[in-house]
Amino acid sequence: MDARLPEVSFPARLAEPGEGIGMDELALAARNHGMPLEALRYDVTPTGLHYLLTHYDIPVVDPDRWRLAVGGVVTRSLELDLAGLRSRPARTVRVTMECAGNGRARLLPRPVSQPWLVEAVGTAEWTGVPLREVLTEAGVGPAAVEVVFTGADHGVERGAEQDYQRSLPLAEAFGADVLLAYEMNGAPLPPQHGSPVRLVVPGWYGMAHVKWLREITVADQPFTGFQNAVAYRLRREPGEQGEPVTLIEPRALLVPPGFPDFMSRTRVVRQGAVGLTGRAWSGRAPVERVEISTDDGHTWTDADLGPHPHPWAWRPWTASWRATPGRHVLVARATDATGRTQPADQTWNAGGFANNAVQRVPVLCDG
Amino acid sequence: MDARLPEVSFPARLAEPGEGIGMDELALAARNHGMPLEALRYDVTPTGLHYLLTHYDIPVVDPDRWRLAVGGVVTRSLELDLAGLRSRPARTVRVTMECAGNGRARLLPRPVSQPWLVEAVGTAEWTGVPLREVLTEAGVGPAAVEVVFTGADHGVERGAEQDYQRSLPLAEAFGADVLLAYEMNGAPLPPQHGSPVRLVVPGWYGMAHVKWLREITVADQPFTGFQNAVAYRLRREPGEQGEPVTLIEPRALLVPPGFPDFMSRTRVVRQGAVGLTGRAWSGRAPVERVEISTDDGHTWTDADLGPHPHPWAWRPWTASWRATPGRHVLVARATDATGRTQPADQTWNAGGFANNAVQRVPVLCDG
C-alpha cells in the first residue's frame, strides 16, 4: 500500500544557508500556532491562546462512542468509556506545556519542520483521572517496562504511515500527576487539544502528552515506534541513535513591553520607568532564579520571583527598567533548582529540539 | 515622540523573486493562525480554531471598567457599560469571517505581510446589540456620512503610531445584522477575539470587525485614517489611491481528504470512492454553485449544495470521487448569485487583498 509514499514524504533535512522559510514550513505555521507573548500575563492561558501543534489532522472522535482500550502486560484488559472515566475520582493539575521544537526556526542551520520562534508554550488546568489508578486497576505485570499510548490521529512522517504513538517509562507513567485528562480550564477538551481524552505528563515536552488517546498498552520491551525511536531524539548527525527528548529545559520569557510595529514586531517604549514582567519554568525542578539584562546580555540583575503554588506551572517574575532613548535588547534567563540555566547561544541538534537559548527582545525607546 | 519610529517601522514592500518567507512574516504566522482545514467539517468553528489576526498586541481590557463612548455628529453622546449593553435586546448572527489577506503568501510577487495561504477563515455565532439601535438612540445628525470605530489595540504600522480604527459608510452601519457583539459561540468573547465587545459586520472582510471596541464616532466627513486610506486598498502601484477593500469575494474550500504527510502536507487517499466535502461562501450574495475538478481544473462537475439557513455563514457542499492510483489535484470553485466566481489564477494587488484564486489540493492515491 505504501509504495508511492516516498513521492510525497521526504527525509528530514536542514535548510541551506540563507534559505528562507519554505511553503511547507509555512503551511505548518499557518495551522499550528504559538501563544502571543502578551498572553504571558495570564496565570492560566485562555483557551485558544495556548500553543498548538498537530502532527497530522485533528481527528473526529465522537465522545459518546469513544472507548479507551487498556491492555498488554496486564492482569485484566480494560475498556473505558467517557462516563466511566468521569465517574472516577478526578484530579486537576496546572501544567505549563512547551513544544520540544520551540526555538527551532532560529537555529543555524535550521532543521526544516514546524518553524517555531519562541512562543510554543501555554499553561492550562487539566482535569482527569490519574493514569496510575487505571494502570493499577488493570494490574501491571512484573515484566512491564514501558507504557505505550496511541492516539486517533493518523498520517505519514518521513515515509512511515502511522497513528501517533509515544511511550513512557513505567516509573514516569506512575507519576501522581500524570493524567488521562478530559477537561481543559474547566471545560471539555476542545477538538484541537485532544477531545475527548488526552494524556498529560507534567514536566515533559509536548510530544509526550498524546492527544485523542484511544489505546494504552503496557509493554515488556522498550517501544521502538517512530515518535520515540526516529523523531524526538537529540542527534548531531542523522545516523546517530541519539538521546531521547524528555523533560522541559528551563526558560524565561518576557511580556514584550510597550507596543509593537505591525511588521517588524519591534517593541516601542516611552522614556522612563518600564515595568518588566514574565514567566519562567523548567520541567526538571522549580525555577529559583530569573535574571534580566537590558543590554543584550552584557550585564544582568536578578528579577523578583513571584509565588509558585503550582509546581508544574510557570512562575511569574517582575523587574524594573528605566528606558533611555535609543535601541536596547532585553534578555531574560531562568535557572532551576538543579542549576540548569539557559545558554546565550543555541544548543543545536538535527531535530531542533530542547533548544532553550535566551529570548532577545529588541526595543526602541523613542524618547 | 515619533522621530525614531522609521528605524523599526518600514514601508510596505514586495518579496524578491525566490525570496523565502522572512523572519518578520514568520513572527506574524507564529502568533496569528488560520483554521486547520479539517475544521471545515464544523458548522460553527470551535473556539480556538477560528482564524485570528491581531495587528498589534491583544490589549488588556477589564470588562468591569470597560466603557463605550458614542459621539460625533449625534444628538446626544452616550457612554455605555457592559451591563447596559447586555440589558438591551440581543441578536445572534452566524457569520463566516475571512481575512482580507487570505491567499497572500501564494501571490507572485508576494506582498510582505501576514503570510496566509488559504486558511484565514472561520464561522462563529456572535451575540450582541444591533449597532443601529445604539446609533438611533444617540440620534445621528443629517450631516453624518460615516461611522468610525476605535479599538483599544495600539501599535505602529509603516511609521504611523495609531489605535486601530476603521470606518463604515452610514448605510452599512445601519445594517440589521451589524452587531456590537459581546458573545462568541454562546460565551463571553475570548481576549483574542475582542473582549469584551467587538464590531461584527457580516459579509465584510475581517478588517471591518473592529475588536476591543472603545469608541464610536459618527463623522460628517469620509474617514482618512490609516486602515481605510493607506492600508486595505486595492492598488497595482504604491502611489495609487486604490479602491477600498470591502465585501468578501466568493470562495470554496475542500476538507482535505484522506490523511496528510506531516511535512509536505500532501494528502494520501486509498483507491476507490472518496467523499469530498467542504464549504463555500461569499459576502456579496448567497453561493449558488460549487464546482469540483479532480484533474487540476481541466474538467468540472457540480457539487451538491446543502441547505443554507444562515445567509451570512458558509454553505456546505458534497461531491463524490473515485480515486485511482497516482497523483491528482483537487479544485473547488464557488459562484454566488451575482455571478461572481473564483479565478484560476491570482488577482494580484500590492496589499495582497481579496485574492480568491481557487484552492488546489494535491493528493496521492497510493493504490
From TrEMBL, chains A, B:
Q: What class of enzyme is it?
A: oxidoreductase
Q: Which InterPro entries match?
A: Ig_E-set (IPR014756), MoCF_OxRdtse_dimer (IPR005066), Mopterin_OxRdtase_euk (IPR008335), OxRdtase_Mopterin-bd_dom (IPR000572), OxRdtase_Mopterin-bd_sf (IPR036374)
UniProt keywords, alphabetically:
Metal-binding, Molybdenum, Oxidoreductase
Give the EC number(s) under which this enzyme is classified.
1.7.1.1
Q: Which domain of life is it from?
A: Bacteria
Cofactor(s) essential for the protein = Mo-molybdopterin
**Could you state a single Gene Ontology molecular function term?**
molybdenum ion binding
Pfam families linked to this entry: Mo-co_dimer, Oxidored_molyb
Its GO biological process annotations read:
sulfur compound metabolic process
By its UniProt entry, which SUPFAM superfamilies does this protein fall under?
Answer: E set domains, Oxidoreductase molybdopterin-binding domain
Name of the molecule in the record: Nitrate reductase (NADH)
Instruction: Read off the lineage from the record.
Output: Bacteria, Bacillati, Actinomycetota, Actinomycetes, Pseudonocardiales
